[in-house]
Amino acid sequence: MNSPGVKRPLPSSDDGGSKRKCSTPSIMNFFSPKPKVVNSQTSSQATNNQSSISSPTQAKPPTPSISPTRSTPPKSMPRTPVAYSPRTTFKASSPSVKPLQPQSQNCDESSLVKVNHAHLNYKFLQPEYRRDINMRRPDDPDYDEKTLYVPPEFLKKETPAMRQWWSIKQRNMDAVLFFKMGKFYELFNEDAVIGVNNLNLMFMKSNEDKPAHAGFPESSFTKYADKLIEKGFKVMRIEQTETPAMLEERVQATGKCDRVVKREVCQVTTKGTRLFGISETIFHSAQNQYLLAISESTVDSSETGKKSKVFGVCFVDVTIGTIYIGQFTDDNNLSDLNILFAHHTPTEVLYEKGSLSSDAMKCILKTGARLEPLKFWPLKKTLIHIKVNRVFSGESNDFEWPPFMKSLFVEGETSSDLMNLEPRDEYKLALNSFGAIVYYLDSQFIEKQVLACANFEFYISPLSQQAGQPHGPFNTVPPMVMDHVALRNLEIFTNSSGCAKSTLFEKINDCKTHFGQRLLKNWICSPLCDVKQIESRLDAVEALISNNNASLMNEIVHMLSQTPDLERYLSKIKNHCFKSESDTRAVMFDGNQYNKAKVNAFVNLLNNFRRLQKFINSINGAVKGSNSKVLCRLLSFTTDGGLYPEYSATLDYFENSFDFKAAQKTGQIIPSPGVNKEFDECEANIKDMKEKLDDYLLEQQSRLGCQSLEYFGSAKNRYQLQVPEKYIKKVPDDWRIESGRKGFKRYYTPAIDKLFAKLTTYEEQMKRILDSVLADIFGQFLRKAKLWSAAIECVAIVDVIQSIAKFARSLMANGVDMCRPTFVQNEDPPILEYKNGRHPVLVKIDSNYISNDLILDDRTILLSGANMGGKSTLMRQTALLVVLAQVGCFVPASSFKLTPVDRIFSRLGASDRLLEGESTFYTELVETSAMLHCATRRSLLLLDELGRGTSTFDGTAIAYSVIEEISKNLKCRCLFSTHYHTLTRDFMNREEVRLAHMACKIERDGDEDGIDLDPLKENITFLYKITDGPAARSYGYNVAKLAGISDSIITEAFSKSKEIELSCKVLGSLQNICRQQTELSSDLKQAVLSSLRA
């Protein structure tokens, strides 16, 4: 974009043209102090002849075709961008007009430009007069806030261009329109205000009775669209679908005098539907961007007799193309739904307005996703739409239902048509959500781009998986369940501040590819429970850790470092191959650059697959000597018994199909001889016609006796015979004079007319062939999509394994003990035992981190100790070591023995849920309730200071009862920390509970004997070592001293503590004495005890 005051070309008077004129900017633009309002960006102006809109049919009320009309630009609209000075009077946007707002507003309110533009005074935009397109008021239950009624009398006063703009805007009030005029995208009215406030564009100078207006060049579309989309806006791209030349031909053919090029809506983009568009878009983030649709219903529970919630979901990352469909019954805490959102966090959620419960909406809101309420299609309508539009096709390009889709219907596997079949009960809601995805993708004009070559997978909720049910290509045993609470409390992906720094994922992630990073996240979310598969992963990791394979490790890292995001590159080819119909008609003024980008992306993809193939060949010997069956299979071709596909013949075909370098240079693929028969025939015909024309020229030179006779002209005026004046007398009578210049005259002859007509026909045929060649090449490439996806999957697994191995190697290089975990499959009781274990995140920061030994079996460990003594850290450390071990990683310990954990439950830290209106104590009990209801003997439970959110007596009593339940009934591995010392006394002699504490060293000033000690004279040193037995005290006063609490307050608190402690001891003694009195009646005893408790 240009700097302030730099001239920007404006559109010419020919609609659809690219030339612009610019007036000299005001000197105030250069010397006025810069206010907060705007930065420099220039904008464009409307052209003399504006366009009619021919919008494709949409699922929502379609944008009607506007009859071509003669168009003129808005009168008296200045061509100069204006930068407002501080002396300019800014008028706040009228409070009665509700401007378009993003769902996640990230802009600074103080920086917004507020000018009194004409649209702020439009009567039909005022709340008291506002109606939707069907004339419904906002208080009508069927009111559609996405549409607007624009009075016909208002439109009559508008220029044709603005009438066209309003015809689209009134049906898309929730979108920002990028309206193409010539080589520029223009924004008007509220859209222009949004552009200025969020994109640092500048308003075009105008009077208050003219529309607000800003814009930018075609080449900047991706840059500005991405900025708005990231802020939560919806962007609609409207393109010219007719050139001025095409307009002239249409006018001559129809006799109409509208002189207006056509335009159509080509794409609508939101956070969940952003993909590689008309220009190159590089996804700098490796994370998935899921578009998710959700449906909800209720069923009667046979177990509880109460209503249970059932959810059907369908979600897809449109940049990759894998569609997940699933349905599950959830509990009262919506555990399954929360796990889904934690593992596959959506960026945009589609839901049917009024169909979701408040609890489900709370879960969705916590994701921070963009929300899009829709009217879901019935299943029948979805199926009809898919069939009519031939969304799916087989190898022969005939319509064909995917096998996955058939499996969702009763008797679907044996039927060729699903139209008259009933969906299975377990997938009805899921198919409802799938229909919403289809509808939404269609309304965004990217339906075929996403669905045509999509991979379908079942989404099976981790909590509902049964043993033996498949989960992924390498595992048939359900994985460990890591719910949203565990992921948050253990700081797996985000820390307490909400960022990724110092998290497990951040420390272990050294993947070199984006698709490797996505796979690593999946591995961490779902650690394995199948010991055989864990051992296979460990074999591969151990092989890469070994110094004997250091060169192999280096070669793998080097190979991966040069590999782009192949998953998304593959998806990009799909996007170019399956454009919407309107987009194929779009006139792009930088079209040659876009074609070059397409070809470059394709060639780069082929080159990367060739490079990977050469790499597999080069390391074949080293891999076979690595002693890892997994690495051997991943890095060996299928022809040698491996998993990596052998695609050399396929690559050879594409490499021999066209000249890569020439294609990258020109942006056009010219088929090699023998590849395209139609092209070869047409090329031969063109060559033959040119040779005949050359031969004819030689004949005429001889006939006239003029060796200087030559052809003149270009394009449609080529092959005019240019004859010098002195030879004109020899010109035959049947030659037709066409043009001339001084000393020469130019002629067409009957023979030239005949030959040139044939040549032109062949050239037009050649153009049509070349236009289809790129799509044909892409189509052939995509027919092998499963081949390319299999290769990408192998590379992704290798990337994750090397990342895990590098994590272990880096700690070993710093002197940290790393060991291979030992797994005990059927140990009873289940065991978790390690020596010299260290926190895998903190030890990466500080290699001197103090290690600990721990043995955890069916005896609950009741852990006490000083504040800040390391209890919570030890609990997190234990859980993270388990996660690492079951992911397939070496762990920071000298030894580690484990019976696989099926689920980690964590109740760590004090937190509340203000948005849900839930207190700290309620949150504690909800998470504890989930543990008690869902934990099995193979689970790992971590409870940190349960009961702290309520009174001491209530908290102690609840903690006591929970420990009783866990230790007596569940008998699973459990760490329970507490500061309630009465609990340690209550469980002192219980076999099912083991007491331990975090040791500390106390140093005292003076000669105190340890009785009634002054806390101000105590100095505490935390040893961070777990030790048998209960802690003597919690040493809270020492923490208060460290926190800067005044000595007087600490002294008074200590005195009050001793008083309370003495009272409790006296009360306890009296209760014991009362119980021991045999002479008192039971009623009297009960009365006395009740009185003492009161």
TrEMBL record:
The DNA mismatch repair proteins mutS family domain, residue ranges: 939-955
Keywords (A to Z) from UniProt: ATP-binding, DNA damage, DNA repair, DNA-binding, Nucleotide-binding
SMART domains: MUTSac, MUTSd
SUPFAM superfamilies reported for this sequence: DNA repair protein MutS, domain I, DNA repair protein MutS, domain II, DNA repair protein MutS, domain III, P-loop containing nucleoside triphosphate hydrolases
Amino acid composition bias (Low complexity), ranges on this chain: 39-55
Region (Disordered): 1-109
InterPro entries from the UniProt entry: DNA_mismatch_repair_MutS-lik_N, DNA_mismatch_repair_MutS/MSH, DNA_mismatch_repair_MutS_C, DNA_mismatch_repair_MutS_clamp, DNA_mismatch_repair_MutS_core, DNA_mismatch_repair_MutS_N, DNA_mismatch_repair_MutS_sf, DNA_mmatch_repair_MutS_con_dom
A GO biological-process term: mismatch repair
GO molecular function: ATP binding; ATP-dependent DNA damage sensor activity; mismatched DNA binding
Biased composition (Polar residues): 86-109
One Pfam family, short name: MutS_II
GO CC terms: MutSalpha complex
Top-level taxon: Eukaryota
UniProt family annotation: Belongs to the DNA mismatch repair MutS family.
Functional summary from the UniProt entry: Component of the post-replicative DNA mismatch repair system (MMR).
Protein name, entry field: DNA mismatch repair protein
